[in-house]
Design goal:
By secondary structure, this protein is an alpha/beta fold. It is built from nine helices and seven strands; from the N terminus they run H-H-E-H-E-H-E-H-E-H-E-H-H-E-H-E.
């Protein structure tokens, strides 16, 4: 499937064309339409399959469309998206946080969508400044995010969608309790997206436990 067939927002298409992305990968072709419709999604995909764009593109599309009344078929924008609302992307490592943030900056360039990466082992100041700017995407490792939440720097009630990227690695690294702590504090009606390289029942159990009903996508075959 070509990106031009997906009827993505014009500013998003401008970035996609500039980046010379033509064909959607299997995970992108499967997930983008579902996430754009506001559905919860559990995707099984290895690193390197284009899964970051598989969630960044449709979530950006939902944000950009929230200001419009004339919508293409199959798009459910975030209702009443306001300045200060954000998509929370949880990742296991600082390297992945930087990668996802870079992807958001490239794809969000023409739609004026921005992000901040929040992770440990570095100064709090830049991360606090990022939150003060009211970015649309917060990409975070769980521990540092919880620190900033406890300092009232991050308001988890403003989350409109949550993505767990490489969720199986987060469980392996002992973040399960942190993930639950965060899920207990974000709105119940948020969109829920999870990506994992293995069909991890622990990960799906957490999704169901917090009221998500993800459509399962497996492109690893």
């Amino acid at each position: 499937m070509e990106f031009s067939e997906l009827s993505l927002h014009p500013s998003l298409m401008q970035s996609i064309e500039e980046l010379k992305y033509n064909q959607a990968t299997p995970i992108q072709a499967a997930c983008i339409p579902l996430i754009r419709e506001g559905k919860d999604v559990a995707g099984l995909a290895q690193t390197g399959t284009g899964k970051t764009a598989a969630f960044v593109m449709p979530l950006m599309d939902r944000i950009l469309r929230s200001q419009e009344s004339d919508l293409p078929a199959g798009v459910k924008p975030f209702s009443e998206w306001k300045k200060g609302h954000f998509v929370l992307v949880l990742v296991p490592t600082r390297e992945l946080a930087e990668q996802v943030m870079e992807s958001v900056e490239k794809l969000g360039k023409y739609g004026q969508l921005s992000s901040v990466a929040i992770y440990g082992g570095t100064s709090y100041d830049k991360q606090k400044e990022g939150m003060a700017r009211r970015v649309e995407f917060v990409v975070a490792t769980p521990g540092r995010l919880i620190d900033l939440y406890k300092e009232n720097i991050v308001d988890l009630k403003q989350v409109r969608a949550v993505v767990f990227d490489e969720a199986d690695r987060m469980f392996d690294m002992g973040f399960k309790d942190d993930m639950k702590y965060i899920l207990q504090r974000i709105p119940k009606d948020r969109q829920f997206v999870v990506f994992s390289a293995t069909l991890n029942f622990d990960v799906l159990n957490v999704a169901y436990q917090f009221g998500a009903e993800p459509v399962e996508i497996n492109v690893s075959k």
